[in-house]
Specification:
The protein is of the alpha/beta class and about 250 residues long. Helix 2 packs parallel to helix 3. It is elongated. Helix content is about 30%, strand content about 30%. It starts with a strand and ends with a helix. A five-stranded parallel sheet has the order 2-1-3-4-5, sandwiched between helices. The longest helix is centred in the middle third of the chain and has 23 residues. It has seven helices and 15 strands.
């Protein structure tokens, strides 16, 4: 599991890092001492779990918790604080778990086991959701929008896929439709990317059809018509290299 630690106390980061390094399945990919830096780190590394302090400058951990969930569709957040008074607010804001500082090794063991179970459950759900979208032929996809409903979409009409944080699901923007088509919650970005070689992920939130990509200017994508009005799709730093490599192979 990829993990990051966000805490304004360097000693707390060091202590938690030392404890987490004892777990073979944890890979600490970054740490941050400011909320803004932490949020950027989430966007850049797409972690499986974030260990988050509460009392920090710029923004409290409770506020940052909501921003992290907006930025990452598949991340668990464990609150780490010296104040147990924040426990209820943390869980009300959908924190995965809660640890008191100094971190008790036994409590950390419990949290790590729960995190591992959560990962396995998500992987199982992903593996069992292959019928969410089917390629009918060279020109069409069949997207399931819920348990029984579906919609046939021409590949050439797909501009991009975007993650809807409020709905916790991907949706597809199609030419000639004012509203995106909402997909089943269980569909993943990996499943979308496997559908067609021309689909490339350029941000945690966006997967584009490169056939409509005109240029990347100031880190923002510009598209050919009929998607030329879309001006909010930004290339993420973590995805840039992989996207360029994929684009060059087309």
């Amino acid at each position: 599991m990829k993990a990051i630690i966000i805490d304004d106390d360097a000693r707390a980061i060091s202590a938690l890092t030392e404890r987490l390094n004892a777990y073979d399945k944890i890979n600490i990919v970054g740490t941050a001492r400011k909320a803004s830096e932490g949020l950027q780190l989430v966007n850049d590394t797409n972690p499986d779990v974030v260990f988050l302090d509460v009392e920090m400058p710029e923004m409290s951990g409770i506020e940052l918790l909501d921003e992290i969930y907006k930025s990452s569709s598949d991340c668990d957040v464990v609150m780490c604080t010296a104040f147990d008074s924040y426990m209820l607010r943390s869980f009300r804001n959908n924190a995965f778990d809660f640890l008191l500082k100094p971190v008790d090794p036994k409590e950390l063991d419990v949290v790590m086991k729960r995190l591992e179970q959560s990962r396995k459950k998500k992987q199982k759900q992903s593996a069992g959701s292959g019928d969410n979208v089917k390629r009918q032929d060279e020109d069409n996809f069949l997207f399931y929008t819920n348990a029984i409903d579906f919609r046939l979409v021409k590949i050439k009409d797909i501009g991009l896929f975007q993650y809807n944080h409020s709905m916790r699901s991907w949706e597809v923007i199609v030419a000639g439709r004012k509203e995106p088509i909402k997909l089943k919650r269980s569909i993943t970005n990996d499943q979308i990317l496997e559908l067609d070689k021309n689909f490339g992920q350029i941000n945690q939130k966006y997967i584009i059809n490169v056939n409509y990509l005109l240029e990347v200017k100031d880190n923002y994508c510009k598209f050919y018509p009929p998607f030329n009005d879309i001006d909010y799709v930004k290339v993420g730093r973590f995805f840039r290299k992989r996207f360029i490599e994929r684009f060059n192979r087309l």
